[in-house]
Amino acid sequence: MKTNIDHKLAYVLVSPVVIYLLAIMVLPFGWAVYLSFTNKVVGVPATFIGLNNYIELVKDSLFWKAVWNTILFTAAAVIAKTVFGMIMALVLNEKIVFRNLFRVLLFLPWTIPTIVSVFTWQWIYSDVGGVLNFLLLKTGIISQPVGWLSTPDLAMFSVILVNVWRGIPFMGIAILAGLQTISKEMYEAAMLDGAGAVKRFFYMTLPSIKEVTILAAVMTTIWTLNDFEIIWLLTHGGPDNGTQVLSTLSYTIGFLNMSLGKAIAIAIMTMPPLIMLINYVTKRSLSSKE
Could you tell me how far CA 168 lies from the centroid of its own chain? Predict the structure, then answer.
């Protein structure tokens, strides 16, 4: 009898969470999936059209360009953030002057609001009075101002650089936390055995921080795949769709072209890789705690 009462009490206690998840997540997601199968346009009732939105996207060259740009943007940014984050973590793990101050400065780019960061970088990239062109002209590296956001290749490089600048602190702090767990006695023993800095890094440091680095890199990949603000505020996906990624394409189609059904279809198509990454992070995190 007591067991039945306990079960009923458990259901009562859990029910607010279930209702919350249904109201906030499940129902909106189900409605979004339904709209992706319609020709929903702002101000016009939705009509069910089956897989037409998905078929049109698969046939659209702009969609595949956005897919390629998303892969390029994400891969380049994550690799750069991992490499430079590790370098920063290794440096800040050593006993250097003003180490605590440098650790605080490392974290600053991640704490600054995105819109402030982007507007600052717009000024840096500007071909009229921009600080980057000014420095390059003064040092003689270039002979005339460069339009960093004027051509597709340079614009992609520029938005990747801003994303890397904002993302390095997370990688650096995560890897630095992993470095703090490595025993100093291990390094001292290795040095007594004659192991150099390179050998110590590859045979001691890297294996010790492998798990935290992988988890941080996967988390960064998820955030980078979903990045919208930096690209939209800097280039609006241009020039010539050179920086058009899936998030900006979905926004353009949904809020500028008013085609909500097709825009949601793009978002739905990006979900499988995100679900796989989230599942990987969850399993990896749980396995590390066991």
Answer: 11
CA distance 156 to 277: 24
Are 138 and 183 in contact by the 8 Å Cβ rule? The answer is no
Q: Is the pLDDT of residue 288 over 60?
A: no
CA-nearest of 74, 33, 66 to 253 is 66
Rounded distance, CA 227 to CA 167, Å?
11
Tell me if 74 sits within 8 A of 163, measured CB to CB.
no
Residue 7: the pLDDT is: 64
Tokens representing residue 255 in the block: 């809020």
Tokens 């319609």 sit on residue: 38
**For residue 290, pLDDT beyond 60:** no
Tell me the sheet residues that pair with 48: 38
Quote the Cα angle for 73-74-77, to 5°: 80
Long-range contacts of 267-270 (CB under 8 A, 24+ apart): 267/32, 267/36, 268/32, 268/33, 268/36, 269/54, 269/57, 270/225, 270/246
Cα separation, 28 vs 44, whole angstroms: 19
- Average pLDDT for residues 234-260, to the nearest whole number? 91
Alpha-carbon torsion (176, 85, 211, 189), positive or negative: negative
